[in-house]
Amino acid sequence: MAFAVIGFMVTKLNLSEKKMKGLQEGRSGERTGKNVLGVALPGCMFALINLYSGDKYYFILSVGFIATIAVAAADTVASELGTKDKNVWMITTFERVLPGTDGGISLLGTLLSLMGSAVAVLLGWTVIFGLSFDALMIIPLLAGFIGCLLDSLLGATLETEGRITKYFNNMSTGLMGGIIAVIFVGILG
C-alpha cells in the first residue's frame, strides 16, 4: 500500500512539466492494469510461494518479497523524478541522451532509486518483521537498486528493440531483484 502511495505522489509531482516534455505515464500520469500487474506479479509470486512453503523459508522468501517491492519503488522514483536531471547518459554506451530516454541514467535518478529502494525496504521490513532491524536489510535495498539498473539495461536494449514491453521489463526485473535477494540471504544469512 505504501508503495502505491509513494508511486502516486512521485507520478503526480511536476506532472504539468512532464506532460510538456511528453514524459508522463498515460495522459494524466495514470497507470494501467498492465503497469500494476508488471510491478505486482513478482511480489505476488514470492508471497504465494511463501504461503505454501511453511516456516522454514519464511524469512528468505519475505526478504525476496521486500526486494521485489524495492525494485518497483526504485524504478518508479528514478523514472518519475530522475527526469529533472539534464545530464543523462545511456546505460550501455554512456553517450548523452535526453531525459526520459529508455535506458537513460542520471546521477539524480540513481540517487533517487537508492532512496526509493531504502524507503520500500524500511517500510516492508517493519511491516513483516516489526522493528527488529537486521544488517541483512542491505540485501533487499541493494537488490532493489540493482533491479532498477537492470530495468534501465533492458530498456536500452530489448525494450527499445521492441523485443519486450515495459510491462515485461518491470515484471522480469522485479523477479530478478527478488531472486538476487534470496540468493544473497541464502549465502550470508
Order of helices and strands: HHHHEEEHHH
Give the overall silhouette: globular
Number of helices: 7
Note poorly predicted spans. Answer: none
- Terminal CA distance: 28 Å
Number of domains: 1
| Proportion of residues in extended strands | under 5%
Radius of gyration: 16 Å
The strands making up the biggest β-sheet line up spatially as 2-1-3
Tell me the number of strands: 3
Q: Which oligomeric form is depicted?
A: single chain
Category from helices, strands and their pairing: mainly alpha
Major β-sheet annotation: 3 strands, antiparallel
Mean pLDDT comes to 88
Helix content: 55-70%
Topology (SSEs and partners):
Layout: H1 2-12, H2 15-21, H3 33-53, H4 58-81, E1 88-90, E2 96-97, E3 104-106, H5 107-129, H6 138-159, H7 166-188
Antiparallel strand pairs: 1-2, 1-3
Question: In words, what does this structure look like?
Answer:
The chain is mainly α. The chain has one domain. Helix content is 69%, strand content 4%. It is built from seven helices and three strands, in the order ααααβββααα. The chain has helices spanning 2-12, 15-21, 33-53, 58-81, 107-129, 138-159, 166-188, and strands at residues 88-90, 96-97, 104-106. A three-stranded antiparallel beta sheet has the order 2-1-3. Strand 1 and strand 2 (96-97) form a beta hairpin. Helix 4 packs antiparallel against helix 5 (107-129) and helix 4 packs across helix 7 (166-188). The protein is globular. The model has no long low-confidence stretch (mean pLDDT 88).
